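Lecture notes, continued. The same structure-token format from the folding unit now serves as the input rather than the output. Read the line below as a description of shape only.
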């Protein structure tokens, strides 16, 4: 893993180089010499946050209308409480 540090000005002038550098590790973007932002690949971000795809993301994806999904209805019956 390689850590790259660039200034905000360098980032603005060469975003594509920064994105390429992010494939090898995080890119620290400084503002007036202080770290202000971090650019990383999406895979690294997911690994860092341990994100997993949830049902809301899956249902929001394009082409969802083409997937048939008809879940069975659940019937919940009540029972009288036994206080003995």
């Amino acid at each position: 893993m390689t850590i790259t540090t660039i200034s905000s000005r360098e980032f603005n002038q060469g975003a594509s180089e920064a994105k390429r550098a992010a494939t090898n590790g995080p890119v620290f973007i400084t503002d007036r010499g202080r770290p202000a932002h971090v650019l990383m690949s999406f895979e690294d971000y997911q690994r860092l946050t341990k994100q997993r795809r949830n049902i809301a993301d899956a249902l929001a994806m394009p082409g969802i209308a083409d997937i048939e999904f008809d879940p069975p209805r659940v019937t919940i019956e009540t029972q009288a409480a036994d206080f003995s």
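Point for the exam: DSSP finds four helices and three strands in the chain.
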